[in-house]
Amino acid sequence: MTKRSPAGLAAVIALAGAGLLGLLIQAVGQPANHPQIEVAHSAVSRLESGDEPAAVVPGGVVDISRSNEMFLIVTDAEGKVLASSASVGGATVVPPPGVFDYVRKNGEDRVTWQPADGVRSWIVVDSFHNGFVIAGRSPTAVEQNVYLLLLWGSFAALGLALVLAIPVVLRFL
Fold first, then answer.
1. pLDDT at position 25, please?
2. Helices (H), strands (E): how many in the chain?
3. Are 160 and 9 in contact (CB under 8 A)?
4. Looking at the domain assignment, is residue 1 inside a domain?
5. Do the domain assignments include residue 50?
6. Beta carbons of 74 and 131 less than 8 angstroms apart
7. Please, what is the Cα angle at 67 between 107 and 94, to 5 degrees?
8. Which of 37, 113, 137, 167 would you call most buried, defined as having the most Cβ atoms within 10 angstroms of its Cβ?
9. Residue 36 burial by CB count (10 A; 0-12/13-18/19+): exposed, middle or buried?
10. According to the 3-state scheme, what is the secondary structure of 38-76?
11. pLDDT, the chain, mean
């Protein structure tokens, strides 16, 4: 019978904790994108059926630096805005070109976008035959804090697992 190391057991527990925190991050992150996914897919469907970009974008403009309301942006294939319900301080904004490049290759992207300092939005970018649809919303302070807490907690648990595993690994060298 082999003797188990307390440090090894602690490393396994810390690693399992990091894995659970990672799953919690996914559990928090997926619902955060849920409304944007539905809005983006609906807009793409309408655009593919012949609706004009202005017809699929809701009326009114959301200043995403001050509101966590849903917004929708429709661009052409080059990323030029055709219709938008999003602005930052009155200026129309679009994600960087790399997001559109990714969507061209992969069909969809779900990212956290920072259109201005201190402004974050959870967006879903989808393509249609003539361009792109960006559906998004800014997280509430509580959502953002919970997500960051889970993220940093998983990093801490991974770091702890690494530190605790060092003596176990050194025993076998």
1. 54
2. 4, 7
3. no
4. no
5. yes
6. yes
7. 35
8. 137
9. buried
10. HHHHHHHHHHHCCCCHHHHCCCCCEECCCCCCCEEEEEE
11. 82
CATH number at residue 76: 3.30.450
How much is the average pLDDT of 57-64? 90
Cα dihedral 62, 66, 69, 71, rounded to 10, equals 40
**Percentage of residues of the chain with pLDDT beyond 70:** 72
Task: Retrieve residue 55's tokens.
Answer: 């017809």
**Predicted pLDDT at 71:** 95
Q: Tell me if 48 sits within 8 A of 61, measured CB to CB.
A: no
Which neighbouring-strand residues pair with 133?
74, 126
Residue 3 lies in a domain: no
Residues in Cβ contact with 101 at an 8 Å cutoff, skipping those fewer than 6 apart = none
Which residue range(s) make up the domain with 127? 8-171
CA within 13 Å, CB half, 44: 19
